[in-house]
Amino acid sequence: MRLDDLARLVRLPAASSVPGDSLAGAAAAGRLGRPGTWVLPAASAFLYWAGMALNDYADRDLDAVERPERPIPSGRVRPGEALAVAAGLTAAGVGTAAAGGGKHSAAVAGALAATVWGYDLALKPTRLAPLGMAVNRGLDVLMGAGDRPGAALRPALVMAVHTYGVTALSRGEVYGTRPSVAAGALACTVGSAAAAVAPSAPRPCTRRDAWGEVLSGLYAGVFATRVGRAQARAVSAPVAAHAGAATGTGIRGMIPLQAALLARAGAPCTATALAVGAPLAVRSSRKVAIT
Fold first, then answer.
1. Would the pTM of this model clear 0.85, i.e. be above it?
2. What is the per-residue DSSP string for 110-143?
């Protein structure tokens, strides 16, 4: 297996949409100051890549008809290789979570690994697929919260709702979608943006908090505008090309949404550092597909 084939198998640039999950969870739980927290984004990436490799393994027969250019049906990657990659990355993800976040993060990572495998091998062809993917994203956020998962429930729900809409819309990438599905995804986007900037429990407001509120609104606006515009096109013309474009935009839109959550939790510098990575994801996705 060549490195570029491996990159296509795991959708390498798409993992740029997950490091902000655990960071948002950690910020909400007050754990950003712990050194191990900064290892957790790697755990998220490993588990995401594992899911992508497993996705292609599970869909190899369907892809031979609908997407013959993918690594397995094109013959560049053997099914057994894809399965081995998925297993190895899963172990790496859970192990990295244990090293960085301790037993609580490891437990959530184990649950996330189980739901990833369950989604790809059983749930994906069913109507519950969007819900399954939303649960995966929510768990990824909670992994960063460690022993304070309750503090990260709101960012977990925000990311889960947006993921639900993106996943529902992605099912129309090949044959097109329905206006109602695209409209539902758009509603999820608007709702996620609003929830990301909503006031939290009252507390003394510092200059850092005020700056965070401003940045949170900015990043949420960027997210809602970019993703909402692409989804609106799918509402007006629900063809496969528009559904696929909106799906890709929705995945890349995870980054400014996570930045909005980080800024709202009092981590404006981390939010800005994360947001800078968005253009990199856009450029890299031109060479390697993210969906």
1. yes
2. HHHHHHHHHIIIIITTSTTHHHHHHHHHHHHHHH
